[in-house]
Amino acid sequence: MKLQAVRHLMSSMNRWLYKIKNPNRGSKKTLLAYSVPGWFSQEECEKLYDLTLLTRGSILEIGHFLGRSTASIAEALKISEENRTFTSYDLGFVSEEDFHGFFDKVHKKDVPVPKLAKKIYAQGKTSTELAKRNLENLGLDTYVKLVSGNFIDLDNVTYDFIFCDAIHETNEITLNLPHIMRRSVKNCIWAFHDMSDANINIILEQSNSLFIERVDRLGLFLYLGEK
Ligand SMILES: C[S@@+](CC[C@H](N)C(=O)[O-])C[C@H]1O[C@@H](n2cnc3c(N)ncnc32)[C@H](O)[C@@H]1O
Question: 4, 21, 151, 224: least surrounded by Cβ within 10 Å?
Answer without folding.
Answer: 4
